[in-house]
Each structure stands twice: as C-alpha cells, then as structure tokens.
Design brief:
367 residues; alpha/beta; Cytidine Deaminase, domain 2; Dihydrofolate Reductase, subunit A; 2 domains; 9-stranded mixed β-sheet; 5-stranded mixed β-sheet
C-alpha cells in the first residue's frame, strides 16, 4: 500500500465516529511498520480514547520505529483525555503523516513542534483537502462557536416541495429517504418550524437499520402553537427536545416543560424569533451542527439572515407544477439573481432515480 492509501484508510476509520463524538472532531489513525499495518484506531465516542491512543493500544507489534498516519494534528493539551503527542513520543514512532491542522488555539502547531523537538519526522498537510472535508463542521464550530447550519429539502424537477394541497409524500424514493436518516445520525441537532409540526406531526428521529443516534430536536415556534399531543412533545422525555419561542405564554411553557421539553425564551425580530440569537444560543449549548428540515418560510428566514452554511437538495424524478405549489425557499426572495448568495457545488450523488446536490454557501447576503 502507498502513503496515500494508508491515509485514506485513516479517513475511512475516522468517519465511523460520525454522530458519536460531537463536539469533538472525527479522527482516524493507522500505524505501519515494515510495510505492514500493525495498529489502527479512531475516536469512537466523546470522552473516549483519541484515535492515536486507540491505534497504539491496538498494535499487534511494538510500534517503535513505525510510521503513523493521522487525519488531524495530535492534541498536546489535557482535556477529557491526556495529550496524544506524549503517547506518540513514548511509543517511539519515527515518522508521522498529518492531514489537517487543528484550528483549536490550544493545539494549533504546538503538537507538531513538540513531535519535531522529540526527533520525529513530521509530514504535514498530507491529503489535506480530504481530511479537511471530514471535519468541516468541527472547524466551523471552533472558529465561530456557532453550529454549522445545513438546509435539507426534497423537491421535484420543477422545484416544488409539495402540491397546492400540501401533499408531499413521497417526492423521493426509499433510497434517498434512507440517506436522510444517515444525515440525522451525523448532525447534532435537527430543526423545523411550527408549521411543519402542525402539518406533518414528525418524529425527527434517526431510523437507521443498525440503530443510530437521535439528533436533538428543535422547533422554532414564536407563538407556541405546538400541540401538547404532538409526537415531538409526547416523546420529549426520551429524545432531547427544545422549543424556541418569543412567547410569554407562561401556562403553555410550563406544560411543555412538564412534558420534558426545554423551552428556550428568545428575543423577537418582528413577529418571529430572532434566529441569529437562536443560533448563538445553540452554539453555547455545544450544538456544533444543525440540520434544518423546515418549510419554505423557515428556510427563507435563515437564508435572509445569512445563517446558512450549506444546502443539501434532493431532486426527485417527479413534476408537480402549479403556481400555488410550495417551494423549498419561500418569502419575498432576493431582488435580483446577482444579489443571492454565492454557492459552490461540492458533490452530486445519485440514489436510483433521485439526485442529491450538495452546495456550500460562500457569501451570505441579506435582502
């Protein structure tokens, strides 16, 4: 195997931690000696062993003199786990290939300097682009202390999310819908508006065949219209549920809290929640990623406020038509085409007859 193949294996290992390590990064490590893989590991759960220590602990042979491939710069400070730099030095690793720099100011550059001072040959930025892509959410959160916000929606080939009667099941096929549950596993939180709760009564849980992790469920509900007998409220005792509101209805707030919901009281902007304040508050709660599965009104409000970081659009092989049919992003819209945000298509993936288009929002402009 080549150096590139060893690092790609480390990336593959790192991805296994998705949904389990937040707000920590995804990290994988592979140890090679005499052209043989003798150890491999990844950060499997928040608070558990880091990838480097896991790989060293799984070594079938003495790692002294071996080469380690790790997707992210090793930590050099004490957190929930001791620093990995010390373990690498003590194990006698002779060469280290590192993919991404760690943006955390507690770590950035220090680990590399310590390793080199110990006589270890360090190669940085190895398959950096692939390793950076693995931890886009982590990098964003560390730099901004706010969650990475992704709009996710399914629409027909003519850009409709529902018919004029509100019918939307199903625009995409079962394979694409199953992929959505992988997203729910990977994101820390999921958010909808009150209209979605009233019309669809969703569960917003993760239903992967092998289990998965339910995201924290968030409802933007300015007027506290969410029914107490909704699926979200009825299951709030077992799945973390946050109701974000600017309402002063103390009785309804108490009822929701009694049902197990956390009520987040926010300022208003016009008749609605101040979404910028909401995103900032979620960041303070260690929520590093947010998947938005709301309707056009919420999607537009987030886009208008410049709070969207990426879009995942599922295109179903259907045509709906109709001037009264619903669109994924409603509201007034941007005044001109040029005034909308600049998007970069990052990935296009086929799910039988459906297509997933992933785009990053690079310039977030408001109306």
């Amino acid at each position: 195997m080549s150096h590139e193949e060893y690092m790609k294996l480390a990336i593959e290992l790192a991805s296994k931690g998705a949904g389990h390590v937040s707000p920590n990064p995804l990290v994988g490590a592979v140890i090679v000696k005499n052209n043989e893989i003798i150890g491999r590991g990844y950060h499997a759960k928040y608070g558990d062993l880091h990838a480097e220590r896991a790989a060293l602990g799984n070594c079938e042979k003495d790692p002294a003199g071996g080469t380690m491939y790790v997707t992210l710069e090793p930590c050099s400070h004490y957190g929930k786990q001791p620093p990995c730099v010390s373990a690498i030095i003590e194990a006698g690793i002779s060469t280290l290939y590192i993919g991404s720099d760690d943006p955390n100011p507690k770590v950035s550059g220090r680990g590399i300097a310590m390793l080199r001072e110990a006589g270890i040959r360090v190669i940085t930025h190895f398959l950096k682009e692939e390793c950076d892509e693995l931890n886009g959410i982590f990098f964003h959160y560390i730099k901004t202390n706010k969650p990475y916000v992704t709009l996710k929606y399914a629409m027909s080939l003519d850009g409709k999310t529902a018919t004029y009667t509100g019918s939307s099941q199903w625009i995409t096929g079962s394979t694409a819908r199953a992929h959505v549950h992988k997203l729910r596993n990977d994101y820390t939180a999921i958010m909808v508006g009150s209209e979605t709760v009233l019309s669809d009564n969703p569960m917003l849980d993760c239903r992967l065949p092998q289990g998965g992790v339910d995201p924290i469920r968030i409802v933007c509900d300015s007027r506290l219209r969410i029914p107490l007998n909704s699926n979200l409220v009825k299951t709030a005792g077992s799945i973390s549920t946050i109701i974000a509101t600017c309402s002063d209805n103390g009785e309804k707030i108490a009822q929701l809290q009694d049902a197990g919901c956390q009520v987040l009281k926010l300022s208003s902007r016009g008749e609605h929640i101040d979404l910028s304040q909401l995103i900032a508050e979620l960041g303070k709660m260690s929520i590093d990623s947010l998947l938005v599965e709301g309707g056009g009104t919420l999607n537009w409000a987030l886009m208008e406020a410049g709070l969207v970081n990426s879009i995942k659009c599922y295109l179903g092989a259907k045509v709906i038509g109709g001037s009264l049919s619903k669109s994924p992003i409603a509201g007034l819209g941007f005044e001109t085409v040029d005034y909308g945000p600049k998007l970069e298509i990052k990935k296009v993936e086929l799910f039988q007859d459906d297509v997933l288009i992933e785009a990053e929002v690079h310039e977030k402009r408001s109306v």
